[in-house]
UniProtKB/TrEMBL annotation:
Residues 20-176 form the N-acetyltransferase domain. One of its GO terms (molecular function) is acyltransferase activity, transferring groups other than amino-acyl groups. This is N-acetyltransferase domain-containing protein. Pfam families: Acetyltransf_1, ATP-grasp_5, Succ_CoA_lig. It comes from Corynebacterium humireducens NBRC 106098 = DSM 45392. InterPro entries: Acyl_CoA_acyltransferase, GNAT_dom, NAD(P)-bd_dom_sf, Succ_CoA_lig_flav_dom, Succinyl-CoA_synth-like.
Length: 776
């Protein structure tokens, strides 16, 4: 028997949010299959074997276990070491030379209805594609409607046929847009369900040293948690909270035996620094037992709707803001600042270092959570960058997303083992996350400033801001600051009674159709101004359709209200408002538009071509000119060997970054743009609007557009450059193993764009841009 190729093991989330382990069959699995079959009902056996089949025969076991990993493949789904479902394919000899495989599935009755067969089909099709299989076929008796639906709903072009009382299906397993969409939708629902289970436990067990755990137990009870709280394991339990220690493997096993869906492993000041391997082992152990894990070194979690506060923090006000953090130290700082700012939370999760639960999971959950309208994240690392950007783009279209300092934090996630990958500059990380739809802040307080405005006021329809004050000097400074932050200000300085004047000016500004934002600053020196102005603005803020923000300057504490965002610094307020306005423009531009997409390419199969290139370069390396030309041609990119140098020289690059995955840039060719870092960055795939923004956002864009006194009288063909960028983006998005590709120089003129130089480098990283089979 040929060993199954490595890399086919995966931790997966079922439709109900529970975790299972998917892996290839092992020679030692025979007894596990016998035990598995004992949990399968007579009806399920009948549907699988087309008749009564009380016991497995030696031939049945051989069919499952004696495989070669290519022409005969068996995958199993396990929970707590037990097989709960299996899928198998065997090549059909009569179909040669086409590689068609017959597929079959069997799921234990207590696992049916959880999407196990759907996940197995995704992974089996992935193995088949890697092994050159082009089609799957299957037969089912007519009463097996559940299996029929598995095939029909997978997103492939399946047309069932009825022959002699048997339903047959035969379909190509090449991925389709529909199959990708179906997988992403199922992934979204399953991951959201798994986080919902973590945040809504009916029973909690807090384990460990009683003195250490007493404050946490008290916090849970004080929060008004309506469920049962124990200090030992007993049935049923949904969530286990424990400290890190040598007995943690036993704690995880015990939690699984009592039906726990999740475990939180808390941080401790005495904890040793865990190695990556030790932390990964903890996560793997939890997943193998079907449990989702926060930790090691988690601060805990909060769900104010339940309510539940399973953190050391005091009572947290309920609100519409979801907050995700990773390491315990950052989590403590961030949560304490949220409490100081009076930020009302819907949910809070501190995943801990190297955790199972990631930002992707929380974004999936927030997308469906009716209690969360604003999403805040502080990130130390991104686990699956392609998935992160896919999920972020979708969530950012639905709800505002604010991310604190990704460029600084994520630089630490670049591991020294990422040999051969190309690291992009720190500023590029902020830029690509911003263009994915998130608001990126450089200060933690700015994150909460943005959240405070979004939580209380409508989003601005534009950048036109009216700044109002009872101090001429302050009004002038606010106007200058608004310009600096990219807003378009108009200014009013009130005279006479400051209370009446400020409230009247704010009311008039809110009614002005040429004003998008109103910022009112009240200066109190001797006579009472702040209190009465705040009451008047609070009344306006409760019903306004454009954002109204108050700044209160004086020697007393600032007023506190419900609907009016209050600041003591006009610069902080304007910075937050500018970030929100900029983000609204980007979110509007990001909404899907079919006319903005690149049409499918009819050229040579790029995946097959890449397999051949990797076979020729098993250790990776730079491609020859002819190999590079063939790779580019597969995406409709032609290279020209010409002595004609007319046109503006442009450089386009796409690389595999060790933190953010695929990322691409464009700028004018030559040392000066490189030294000035005049490049635009995006994460592929690109739409036409993305490509155009990359070009027009360059500091040297005038050399392409022919405007602003640039030497080139004729503008370059921007549409041709956009097309090249989109095609290069598609290549990098689809082909992970092409770790670096550069088009330089691209000569852009009024009649088109010619690629006169190109190079590409490959590494054997993996076959898929975003796996076509779900896994954690």
């Amino acid at each position: 028997m040929t060993p199954t190729p490595p890399g086919r093991e995966a931790d997966v989330i079922l439709a109900d949010g529970t975790v299972a382990v998917l892996r290839p069959v092992l020679p030692t699995d025979r007894p596990l299959f016998v035990e598995f079959y004992s949990h399968v009902s007579e009806e399920s056996r009948y549907l699988r074997f087309f008749g009564p089949h009380p016991e497995l025969t030696e031939q049945d076991l051989s069919d499952w276990v004696d495989v070669d990993g290519r022409d005969r493949v068996t995958l199993v789904l396990t929970r707590q070491g037990r097989i709960v479902a299996t899928a198998h394919y065997a090549l059909v000899p009569d179909a040669a030379p086409e590689r068609v495989a017959d597929v079959s599935f069997l799921v234990s009755d207590d696992t049916q209805g959880r999407g196990a067969a759907n996940i197995l089909l995704e992974h089996l099709a992935q193995v088949g594609r890697e092994s050159g299989v082009t089609r799957f076929s299957a037969e089912m008796i007519t009463s097996n409607q559940s299996m029929r639906q598995v095939f029909l709903r997978a997103g492939y072009d399946v047309r069932p046929a009825l022959e002699d009382g048997v339903i047959t299906v035969d379909f190509a397993i090449d991925p389709t847009e529909r199959s990708r969409t179906v997988m992403h939708q199922r992934e979204h629902r399953a991951e959201a369900a798994s986080i919902s289970a973590l945040l809504t436990p009916a029973a909690i067990a807090v384990l460990g040293d009683s003195e250490r755990m007493a404050p946490l137990t008290a916090a849970i009870r004080a929060s008004g948690y309506p469920g049962r709280v124990d200090t030992h394991l007993r049935d049923p339990v949904d969530l286990v909270i424990a400290g890190y220690g040598p007995d943690l493997p036993d704690v995880i096993a015990g939690a699984a035996r009592h039906g726990a869906r999740g475990i939180v492993v808390l941080a401790d000041g005495d904890n040793p620094n865990l190695s990556t391997a030790a932390a990964a082992a903890l996560v793997s152990r939890a997943r193998a037992h079907g449990i989702r894990a926060c930790g090691p070194a988690s601060l805990g979690l909060i769900n104010t709707a339940l309510p539940l506060n399973a953190t050391p923090a005091p009572a947290v006000p309920a609100g519409r803001v979801g907050l995700f953090t990773q390491s315990a130290g950052v989590a403590t700082l961030t949560l304490s600042r949220a409490l100081e700012r009076g930020c009302g939370l819907s949910s809070f999760v501190a995943s801990g270092a190297f955790a199972d639960v990631t930002a992707n999971d929380l974004m999936q959950y927030w997308s469906d959570d009716p209690d969360t309208d604003i999403c805040l994240l502080t990130l130390d690392a991104i686990g699956n960058p392609r998935k992160f950007f896919r999920v972020l783009r979708r969530l950012a279209l639905e709800k505002p997303v604010v991310i604190f300092t990704p460029s600084r934090a994520l630089l630490s996630a670049r591991h020294h083992t990422a040999v051969g990958l190309v690291a992009v500059p720190p500023g590029a990380l902020d830029e690509v996350i911003r263009h994915a739809g998130a608001i990126v802040t450089a200060r933690r307080d700015t994150m909460f400033d943005v959240a405070g405005i979004l939580d209380r006021q409508p989003v601005p329809p534009g950048r036109r801001v009216r700044v109002i004050s009872n101090s001429a000097g302050l009004t002038a400074q606010m106007r200058q600051a608004a310009h600096r932050f990219g807003l378009h200000p108009s200014a009013v300085t009130v005279s006479g009674d400051p209370v009446e004047g400020l409230i009247r000016a704010a009311r008039q500004a809110l009614a002005d159709p040429h004003v998008d934002i109103v910022l009112t600053a009240a200066v109190e020196i001797s006579h009472p101004v702040s209190g009465p102005v705040h009451r008047g603005l609070e009344e306006l803020a409760a019903a306004c359709r454009r954002p109204l923000v108050g700044v209160f300057v004086g020697f007393g504490p600032p007023p506190v209200g419900a609907d009016l965002p209050v600041f003591t610094s006009y610069a902080d307020a304007l910075e937050a408002l500018a970030l929100i306005a900029d983000n609204e423009e980007k979110r509007a531009a990001a909404r899907p538009d079919p006319a903005d997409e690149l049409a499918p390419s009819p050229e040579e199969d790029a995946t097959g071509l890449l397999r051949g290139l990797l076979a020729a370069h098993p250790g990776g390396g730079w491609l020859s000119d002819s190999e590079c030309g063939r790779l580019l041609a597969a995406y409709g990119i032609d290279t020209a060997d010409t002595a004609d140098t007319a046109g503006t020289a442009v450089t386009m690059r796409a690389v595999e970054d060790p933190v953010l995955g695929p990322i691409m840039s464009v700028g004018l060719a030559g040392p000066v743009p490189e030294l000035l870092d005049d490049r635009s960055w995006r994460v592929p795939p690109l739409r036409r609007r993305d490509a155009r923004d990359m070009l027009t956002g360059l500091g040297t864009a005038a050399l392409l557009t022919g405007h602003d006194g640039a030497e080139s009288a004729d503008p370059a063909d921007l549409a041709a450059l956009e097309d090249l960028l989109m095609r290069l983006g598609r290549l990098k998005d689809e082909l992970v193993s092409v770790v670096e590709v550069e088009l330089s120089p691209v000569l852009a003129g009024p009649d088109g764009a010619r690629v006169t130089g190109a190079r590409a480098r490959v590494l054997p990283l993996g076959p898929e841009r975003d796996p076509l089979a779900r896994s954690l």
